[in-house]
UniProtKB/TrEMBL annotation:
Species in which this protein is naturally found: Noviherbaspirillum saxi
Keyword Cell wall biogenesis/degradation part of the UniProt annotation: no
Family from the record: Belongs to the LysR transcriptional regulatory family.
Gene3D superfamilies: Periplasmic binding protein-like II, Winged helix-like DNA-binding domain superfamily/Winged helix DNA-binding domain
PANTHER family membership: HTH-TYPE TRANSCRIPTIONAL REGULATOR (PTHR30126), HTH-TYPE TRANSCRIPTIONAL REGULATOR GLTR (PTHR30126:SF40)
Protein name, as recorded: LysR family transcriptional regulator
Amino acid sequence: MDLIQLRAFVTVAREGNLTRAAERLHLTQPAVSLQIKSLQASLALQLFIRTPSGMALTDDGAKLLPFAERVMESVAEFRQGAAALHSTLSGTLAIGTILDPEFIRLGAFLKRLVETYPQLSTQLQQGMSGWVLQQVKSGMLDVGYYLGTPTKEFHSQTLTSFTYNVLAPKGWKNRVAGKGWAALASLPWIWTPPESAHNRLLSKTFGEHKVAPNKVALVDQEMSMLDLVKSGVGLSLVRESIALREAHAHGLVIADAVSLSTELSFICMAKRKQEPAIAAAFALLQALWRH
């Protein structure tokens, strides 16, 4: 058993598919399959079973996965600690943040950044996705989080994909159930400024359906949007995890026939991606979101 085999085990477990795992590991599928077979042989345990959709963990595999993940995390921390001993990075890195810190894993990222590069300080500025993009472009921010994929003048790294639901007030089930975008457009909408991802996604979607939404309020904070939905003002675009939580806790209604997908990205100007502090930030985030 070695670290290469453990990494293959963790990656296949997370992806649930040998082909996707091989792509993530930058290996061929037979190479990954061989690593899994070798690990199973060394442990005298079957870790996976084949399914029509790919690979599923056995009970033994599921029990061992948390241990393997901790080993890989410890190895990453060890490497970061070693890198810190060689680090000469100093100065300030201006970072644009969006949404809530937990969702973007901001705390974990800053912890790794400080531990790995103790002489590098950070300056955080919170704003909407489009505002972060503008500030990175102007040079006021070095890097930042962004929703979606920016233009080619930016260098971006996709951290995760997620879904937005349309959330409606309590008691609106009959008004939104089974309704598509064209029908939903006539209902009252809680709108957001042009700099927000909500505005960008909804404007594109309604434009494609050639309908104009009925905008009744303009807000720039997620919590304000939720409060207005709870108050019965209208519909709002909300991250799926929050929509499910609010539906369960407060009886709010999720429109069941529509949803929108986007990506959480980390961006900088393409011409600056090789700058040491920026390159270091991207490398740390890649390691953080790989697990």
